[in-house]
Amino acid sequence: MIRTILVIAAIAALAIAVLAVTGDAGQASLIWLGWRVDMTAASAALMVMFLALAATVFWRGLIWLLESPERAARARARSRRKQAGEVLARGFLAAAAGDGSEARRLAQKAADIAEDSPALVRVLAAQAAEAAGDLPAAKAAYTAMLGFPEMRLAGHKGLMQTALAEGDKAAALRHAESAYGLTRTARWAWRAMLESRLENGDWAAALQLVQGALERKIVTPIVAERARAALLAASAADLDATGDERLRGQALDYAMQAARLQPGFAPGVVMAARLTAAEGKVARASALLEQAWKEAPHPALWLAYRDLRTSETPRERAARLAALAAQQPQSRESQILGVEQALIAGDAAAAREAARSLATEEPTARIAGLMARVAFAAGAPDEARAWIARGAGAPQEPDWSDLDPEGRAFAYTLEDWARLVTTYAESGELIHPRLERHERAMSDLPELPFSYRESTPFVRAAETGAHVMPIPDDPGLGELLQPALAEPTPRRTGLRRRLASAPRASK
Question: Which residues contact 353 (CB under 8 A, 6 or more apart)?
Answer without folding.
Answer: 342
